[in-house]
Every structure is written in C-alpha cells, then in structure tokens.
Amino acid sequence: MMQQRVNDQAAYVLHRRDYQDSSLILDLFTQDFGRIGVLVKGAKKRRDIASFQIGNRLSVSWSGKSDLKILTQVDCQTINIPVELLSGLFYANELLLYLLPKADAYTELFNDYQQFLIQLSQLSEDDSASDQQQFETLLRLFEINLLTEIGTMLPLNVESDAGQAVEIDQFYDIDVSQGVTLAAEQQRTAYNYGGKELLAIQQRDLSTAKSLQAAKKILRQIIDFNLQGRTLQSRNFYQKLNLLKKKRH
Predict the structure, then answer these.
(1) pLDDT tens per residue across span 188-216
(2) Beta carbons of 219 and 143 less than 8 angstroms apart
(3) Strands, DSSP E only, in the chain?
(4) Radius of gyration of the chain (CA)
(5) Which residues are 218's β-sheet partners?
(6) Cβ pair 123, 135 in contact under 8 A
(7) Contacts of 110 (CB under 8 A, 6+ apart)
(8) How far apart are CA 139 and CA 116, in angstroms?
(9) Cβ neighbours of residue 174 under 8 Å, at least 6 residues apart?
(10) Residue 46 to residue 42: CA distance in whole angstroms
(11) Which of 12, 43, 174, 231 has the smallest count of CB within 10 Å of its CB?
(12) Is 170 helix (H, G, I), strand (E, B) or coil?
C-alpha cells in the first residue's frame, strides 16, 4: 500500500478512544475520504487536546500506509451544541459509525451532517412542544438523508409489489424487506400508515405531527434492520435524559 499524505481535509470527530498511555484514536468523518481512523500521538499531553472533542469541525492532515493514519496537523472550529441536545449528536454519530463503510466518500452526506450540526447548535434547550418537535424533525431528516445516501431508504411513494403510486386516501403496510404494500380493508389498524403521511415523508415534509410520528416509526424499522442486532448506546442515553427532565418538573 502506498504512503498517503492528505492536507487540510475538513472532518468531524465521530468517536474517540484512548490508545496506550497518552495517545488517542479518532474516528473521523471527512469530506473527501468518508469515515477514517487516525492516531493522535501524545494527544493527552498536547495543549490543543480540546480540539479532539466530539462534534468539533476540524481541518486535519495525516499520513500513513495502513488503515489507521497518523495525524500530522489539526485546526479546530468549535460548534457549541446545547448540553440538553447532545443526545442528537451522539445518535447521529453512532449511525455514521455503524452504517457507513470505511474509506468511502460521501460528500453530500458530509454536507448534510455539517448542516445538521449547525442547526442543532441553533436550537433552544427549552422543553416546549415546539422545541421538541424541531429537534425530532432534525433527527428524522438526517436519518432520511443518511439512508438515502447509503441506498437503504425505502421508496414511500409507490407500492413495491404492484408498482402503483401511493394514494393520499389509502392505508398501507410497510415491511423493510418488501417495501410498501396496500393494507387490506379488513386489516386496517392504528399500525397502518396513511398515504398522505407516506407521500409527505417522501418529500421530506415533516411539518405535521402525524407525518413526524410516522417517519419516526418507519425510519426506526429501516435503521434497526440495517444495524443487524447492534445496540445504539445513544438511545439509552436519550431515554435517561428524558427521565431526568421529567423528575425536574
């Protein structure tokens, strides 16, 4: 494998872990090289160790022949995300770590992720219904963008078996392995999805409570299928955070 030298690459820290006594291994999401791992030698002794916090926007340089590159230079731009919303950052990062293959470029997704972080930093920490809806909407739109980019998002505007266009006044079932199918008249329940909501999600319009709720259920099905049994720690963190909020009120 040839020696690789890359300079001034835009990147975000998805995950960090200790290596030996004073070093760190970072999982980065980069603009042109996708997800890569880099070793930061002596990171814990560096004055700029704060640069390697999760969520920071970096400009990095690295070299190396192996899959694990050696960081040679870093500049940092901090993005301040409210503490109460950090669960959203951890969740998005876990999805990228589990669902993105290493070293494949996803430039459009990188831009989506960057915009997601900026919008997350601009949200209020308040617990009002409208603030929570904005937070949920951001998460769902990021999930849609991610699943679309990696080719696992189901088309929600057409029946998978019949090829018929989804209709606003009909009800549908969704199976991750089969797609969208028309629900039988006698089998319509609260678990079915309205065609109106499916078409709205397809258009990334989550402005109603129904479309947002349907999107959450559908996207979780698709994501869990692709996780193949792996558990997201950020979901547990989010649940614990919600319990703490309820105890405060």
Answers:
(1) 776 789 999 999 999 999 999 999 999 99
(2) yes
(3) 4-19, 23-30, 34-40, 57-64, 68-77, 171-175, 179-182, 193-194
(4) 20
(5) none
(6) yes
(7) 10, 29, 30, 31
(8) 8
(9) 154, 156, 180, 181, 193, 218, 221
(10) 7
(11) 231
(12) coil
